[in-house]
Amino acid sequence: MSTKNVQPNTASRPPVVVIMGHVDHGKSTLLDYIRKSNIVSGEAGGITQRISAYEVTHKDEHGANRLITFLDTPGHEAFSKMRARGATTADIAILVVSAEDSVKTQTLEAYQTIIDSKLPYIVAINKIDRPNANVEKVKMDLVEKGIYLEGFGGDIPFVPISAKEGTGVNDLLDMIILVADLNSFTGATNETARGVIIEAHRDPKRGVSATGIIKNGTVEAGMFIVAGTAITNTRIMENFLGKPIKTATMSSPISLVGFDVIPDIGSTFETFHTKKEAEQYIKEMHELLEKAGSKEGVTVTAKKVIPLIIKTDVAGTIEALEKEIAKINTDDLAFRIISKGVGAINESDLKLANSGTESLIVGFNVKIDNGARDLNESLKITVQTFDIIYKLTDWLKEVAEERRPRSEVMETIGTLKVLRTFSATKDKQVIGGKVTLGHVSEGGIVRVIRRDFEIGRGKIVGVQINKTKVKQVEEGTDCGLLVEAKIDIASGDVLEVFTTTIK
């Protein structure tokens, strides 16, 4: 493992800022304005479904250029793990709240994540340009939820903004710089880089790549980076714009290409000068994992299990899907994920699905490759692809409803005590009795109970009261019945009239 024998060269570093809030409250639009590029229109369904990092420059009050790294995180409830990861990576949080919609469910979830992560934060009240905007109401709603803004019993800074028009955005950036200066974020530039993997995916042409944020130190071309047990060299290293770079330092987002396997999202990465050092570190990591018993087992106790294969474009989406799928599982049916990975749906996925019964393959923001498509013409495996997470989960809910085990629920609607038996022909018998509960009616299906045990079933084909035909007899009334049954009904038997429902 690499050792650091030099004295740390401490220096101030740019803040890493995570933007959080409820879906559709304008987080991506805010970044769009800051970066002067469009990141909203490129998102499926208009919502951000992966975490991204961007570096911007802002002039402070002294005219100096100050770097700020922004993390954009999804607001949809399914992506809570992603948001938590962003919060642990960041130095400062911006809680975006719509001036129209005020405080919502994911607003409070995001706030709790910020508090749990002990991040300094700023409230950005967005959409002040909208006709229905009510900034004062938002302030009061925040106070009611324990978020005490400056001037409202607390010290939490807030900035009214319009991300769409740009109103107040410079004030927000100034506030970020102020908060950063107050907290004095520093690091050691002359140490080898350490950071966090925030996203990873498999590119069909370039292989496995990952996005990371450098928390400390510096990385240079020719070094080796290890994330968990994944390793790559820095021969191909890019900035957030996709441009090749030779060096990067604290707070910078970097893209690394060439990992041997997809690194775990949220894992820390370490940098080494030589491949030997990196491999030794991986060896030690394997030993630690073995000792800790890192493999997690899942026991499914449901009556019916549907094997499921998941393929996505980036690793971070897998955990969001796992969370949503867990919500669908019930006591009588569960999806069991037998394989998950990044990249197009391929022949191996089809062959794995074909090894079991009723297996499904779902893809998120990926396609099925030509070889797999051709193979599936004969295998007929159910394969579905989606670009919006709730459409995928809605489809799985439909599948679950179609395939869940059905049970027959029996409901007793009336009982009759048999008092006398009369004439009988082949399978029909005339009996006299009294309705003791509910009602009995023509066409009713009955269970014949003798000494608390069912001895057979039949059907009421005729009903009379005082020799007059009727359709139904209510509780407490004597009547005569013509019952069709393959058993002999005797005095003292009880007839239970019931209905069945498939649930």
Could you please describe the fold and organization of this structure?
The longest helix is centred in the middle third of the chain and has 18 residues, at 275-292. This protein has 10 helices and 29 strands. The protein is 24% helix and 38% strand. It folds into 4 domains: 10-185, P-loop containing nucleotide triphosphate hydrolases (Rossmann fold, 3-Layer(aba) Sandwich); 188-292, Beta Barrel (Elongation Factor Tu (Ef-tu), domain 3); 304-403, 3-Layer(aba) Sandwich (Rossmann fold); 408-502, Elongation Factor Tu (Ef-tu), domain 3 (Beta Barrel). The two termini are 60 Å apart. The chain has 503 residues and is α+β, with helices and mostly antiparallel strands.
Task: Offer a quick outline of the entry.
The protein has 503 residues and is an alpha+beta fold. The chain is built from ten helices and 29 strands.
Roughly how many Å is the radius of gyration? 33 Å
Strand order of the largest sheet: 13-12-17-9-10-16-14
Average predicted local confidence, pLDDT: 85
Query: What is the count of distinct domains?
Result: 4
Please state the overall shape, judged from the principal axes of the Cα atoms.
elongated
CATH homologous superfamily identity of the largest domain: P-loop containing nucleotide triphosphate hydrolases
Major sheet: size, sense and barrel closure?
Answer: 7 strands, antiparallel
Number of strands: 29
Structural class: alpha+beta
How helix-rich are the residues, as a percent range? Answer: 10-25%
What name is given to the CATH topology of the largest domain? Rossmann fold
Discrete helix count: 10
CATH architecture of the largest domain: 3-Layer(aba) Sandwich
The portion of residues forming beta strands comes to 35-45%
Distance between the termini: 60 Å
| Poorly predicted sequence stretches spanning 5 or more consecutive residues | 1-7, 37-41, 292-302
Broad CATH class of the largest domain: Alpha Beta
